[in-house]
Structures are given as structure tokens and as C-alpha cells.
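Q: I'm a student working through a structural biology exercise. My instructor gave each of us a protein and asked us to get a predicted structure, then write a short paragraph describing it. Mine is Carbonic anhydrase. I'm not confident about reading structure output yet, so if you can add a plain explanation after the C-alpha cells, that would really help. Here is the sequence I was given:
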Amino acid sequence: MRSPFILTAVSALLAAVSGMCPEPELKSQSPIDIPQLSGVPNNKNVDVAFPQTSNGVLRNEGETLKLFWDGGKGSHLNLKDKTFSALQFHFHAPSEHRVRGYQYPFEMHIVHQATDKSLAVLGVLFEVDPNDNDFLNQVWPSISQLGDKGTNVSVSNIAGSTLNIGDNTGFFRYQGSLTTPPYAEGVEWTVVREVQKISQAQLDAYTAKIAEKNAREVQPLYGRKVILYEGFGN
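A: Happy to help. First, here is the predicted structure for Carbonic anhydrase. I'll explain a few features afterward.
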């Protein structure tokens, strides 16, 4: 058996090494405050489409509502030469991303995955408007059917085409991370420039189910480049 002196010396050495080699600082975190940018032509850097309807399962995660949804046949998020397929979308109130310091009341994240398991997220911002949002109206009737955390309800015929992503859409692109633990980096972020509309009634229906705010604070850029691509993949 090793003596207490040897064990103490080993522990002291390990502690010293740990102090000399701290955990690396994460410098590609999300969300961010999107700065003022001049746009550049898209040139097929971003191409997103949801041409068909698809069924999904809405789940109360406790911190958010999440809908497991594949986007429908033929849906895709193409980033340059890489294709990502939809897995799910969920919500944050207020928004996680800010634009020139402004925080929107609501944000949707459509999480995509490539065949190599890498992730890309399409962020959609919402501003309050007198009219309902057509896309959200496909999901919102099911919110009242959800119970507490862990409950599910099926949702049929969700048409991603009702999202306002048209030929003149712009996209903010940057390298980031998940916005929830473990905050893993290497996530391709695309935030739609055009802000969608959500009615106060729709927002109230969401916050009645998820009362706690669930937006992570914006993170430093640390020199990362944010690009505004204009146009729809021309």
C-alpha cells in the first residue's frame, strides 16, 4: 500500500497540472447579437425548401415545446455543397439571437442534421402582429391538448411552405453552438433575415404552457465572421 505521503504528493501534482492546463475556453458559442452587415450575393450558399407536408409529434419538454418533424418529402437545408435534413423544431421566448441589439419576443429553431451527424440550425425570428401566423396555426391547436412535461400529441399535415421564406429572403450565416447544455460547438447557424409575424394570442398560448423565459444570453463573437447572404440561392 502506498504511503499517505506519496498519495498526497500525487494529488498535489495532479492539482498543479490541472491549474496549468485549464479547460479550453469555448469561443464559438451561440446565440449572438447580429451586427449591421452589408449583404453579398447568395450564389447557392444557402438553399432551404419545405415543398411537401409532413406529420409530427409535439412534446412538452418543460423548458420549451418541441415538434419532431422531418420537413416533408424533398425538404432540405443546403449550405454550399452540404445537405441537412430536418429533425425537429422548438421555440424560445424571448428570442435568443438579437439583431443590432434588438431582442424579438419569439424565435423558432429548426434543427437539421447531415449524414455525417453534423448539425445545422435554421433560426426564425418573430415580431408581434395583429394577425395570426399561418405556419404556427398548424401547430397551436395542439398546444391545449398537451399535459405537463413529458406529454406528447400528434400533429398532422404541417406545411413548411407556409413559412415566409421566399425568393428575396436574406440569411445571416455563422459558425456557432447549441444554445443548451452541453453547448457543443461546430453547429452551422442560419438565421432568416425576414422577421415573421406572431399574434399576441398565439404568443400568450405558448407562454401559458411554457411560462419561464428560455433564452440564453448572447455570446461574444471572438472574431467570428457573420455573413449576410442576399437572395435565395441564385
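A: Here are two points you could use in your paragraph. The helical segments are 4-20, 134-137, 200-209. Residues 122 and 190 are 5 Å apart (CA to CA). It's a good idea to check both against the output above yourself.
Q: Great, thank you!
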